[in-house]
Amino acid sequence: xxxxxxxxxxxxxxxxxxxxxxxxxxxxxxxxxxxxxxxxxxxxxxxxxxxxxxxxxxxxxxxxxxxxxxxxxxxxxxxxxxxxxxxxxxxxxxxxxxxxxxxxxxxxxxxxxxxxxxxxxxxxxxxxxxxxxxxxxxxxxxxxxxxxxxxxxxxxxxxxxxxxxxxxxxxxxxxxxxxxxxxxxxxxxxxxxxxxxxxxxxxxxxxxxxxxxxxxxxxxxxxxxxxxxxxxxxxxxxxxxxxxxxxxxxxxxxxxxxxxxxxxxxxxxxxxxxxxxxxxxxxxxxxxxxxxxxxxxxxxxxxxxxxxxxxxxxxxxxxxxxxxxxxxxxxxxxxxxxxxxxxxxxxxxxxxxxxxxxxxxxxxxxxxxxxxxxxxxxxxxxx
Length: 383
Known about the structure:
By secondary structure, the protein is an alpha+beta fold. The chain folds into 3 domains: 8-62, Orthogonal Bundle (434 Repressor (Amino-terminal Domain)); 78-317, no CATH class; 330-378, no CATH class. It has 18 helices and 8 strands. It has helices at residues 8-17, 22-25, 32-36, 44-54, 89-111, 129-140, 144-148, 153-167, 211-227, 244-257, 260-266, 273-284, 288-297, 303-317, 330-338, 340-351, 357-364, 369-378; strands spanning 78-79, 82-83, 170-174, 176-177, 180-184, 192-195, 202-206, 231-233. β6 (192-195) and β7 (202-206) form a beta hairpin.
């Protein structure tokens, strides 16, 4: 039996990078502790299996030291007041996949002579949040009454995405890495990110988050695009980020989804807080957490009352997550994960012979020609 000389630090780095404990992995790799302590070396087959489980490129395990893996976009996430320093392989692979899709769409837009989108980078953080939210709402034709009449949060989110894509934004929503339903994205690590580009602006939303929370994430990331700023965010209505851009995007997102003047008009005297929060969340089709923040902004709640109510609401919502983890209609799910706008363009380009089927399959997570053709038909394309 041939064993491979691997530095224990590389094995430990790969496991920690994947956010796995030795206890989690010992059922699959009983000798893992001995490997990491340098007491025993794995076989080549064991090392290959290990690399697959922790989602690390096999060649990385033969390096002399762990590689630096800086995030390929500005990272505005914080835990408390601390910046998150180590991205998971799930996050990195998701960003890389979205960057590949964006690069492809940028080239497609150039070939098809599409005009630059003038809203991208059209604002600065010096613009008042209320004025910025109104400008974005006008561009999206974002009607509060139409949103209120949506029967569910899912319908409201779908309408919001449709409006953003009609404007030219590629909106991708997924709770897993590519189409791998065994690799779930963690909303505690990130809620979304924006990749700014005048021809191919892209927003990714972590679909493992609740639908109502995804509304806020989309609004927040759209604000990033209006600034022309790419960023990885942990958008949340309760936070007051140290970063000026994040503070501005949070304020704009809250105002876009629940304008303060409308919130004040909707407040009813003597209504208990829980009833009011649930009613207003249904009215605006946003998370109850956003409503609590807006009640603080409207001076209905003191800071202490807000923090107490917010903590209680977070606990309630932990048991009500409705993330995208696969299932349902494969074709509808795939279109949502890669953006309908992107999917239509890719299928069209592939059928016209300008994009290789191999490349299209990789970007869509599809393996067979007949599946690809059926996917095209599900998008309303004649094949």
